[in-house]
């Protein structure tokens, strides 16, 4: 990998900024001052520093965000702020994108990454990745309505919704889905004569929203969380091929 590409890939500097930093003797490779921006390096083996601080390389980046209301799940929008606007500029340079969408007024767990393979797995209808949402509704759910929601309801599409799992107490509860249709939970509740007033995603597959994150706060995933997501992906792919 070229040295200037290494800096752009890690989101540390643009290629032009890297070239200027190298000319200014601010960059070292294995303890020696770098001479050229097109110098070939091994990002996994070589030690790269910028202004005395080591710059580490990782193939993909995974960010957990506690999405607040008012932000759209997109990389760019001409009218509204996006979830990427909540992150430092470095992460925009990395080309992160939201893994799935949450409505503008829906809050909670959002994964942003540049790992296209993992994102495809989490979003693919054939993967049946469970997603759990905490909700509040306008009216208390009846046992009959809950049973209908769990068994599948007509939301105006060709097929009923897939079976869901519900935990409810009056006007609040949790619902777990294994699919992701447009405005699905809101439409499901409307199908039984009710209405969602608050909605928060709390899990995505094996990933759970960190309770320490306030609305709008974020952090990178831990190695264990990344391993759990990748394990979930491998196990699902193995079942599909058996």
Could you characterize the architecture of this molecule?
With 242 residues, the chain is an alpha+beta fold. It has three domains: 3-54, Structural Genomics Hypothetical 15.5 Kd Protein In mrcA-pckA Intergenic Region, Chain A (Roll); 62-125 and 206-241, Alpha-Beta Plaits (2-Layer Sandwich), CATH 3.30.70.580; 131-204, Alpha-Beta Plaits, CATH 3.30.70.1560. The protein has helices at residues 3-9, 15-23, 89-93, 116-123, 143-151, 184-191, 223-241; strands spanning 27-29, 32-33, 48-50, 53-54, 62-67, 97-98, 107-113, 131-137, 165-169, 172-177, 196-204, 207-208, 218-220. α1 crosses α2 (15-23). The protein is elongated. The chain starts with a helix and ends with a helix. The model has no long low-confidence stretch (mean pLDDT 92).
CATH class of the largest domain: Alpha Beta
Task: Give the averaged pLDDT, no decimals.
Answer: 92
How far apart the termini lie comes to 38 Å
Radius of gyration (Å) = 22 Å
CATH topology of the largest domain: Alpha-Beta Plaits
So, the CATH homologous superfamily of the largest domain?
Pseudouridine synthase I, catalytic domain, N-terminal subdomain
Shape: elongated
How much of the sequence is in beta strands? 15-25%
In total, the number of strands is: 13
Low-confidence stretches: none
Return the string of H and E elements. Answer: HHEEEEEHEEHEHEEHEEEH
Helix content: 25-40%
Tell me about the largest β-sheet. Answer: 9 strands, mixed
CATH architecture of the largest domain: 2-Layer Sandwich
Compute the number of structural domains.
Answer: 3
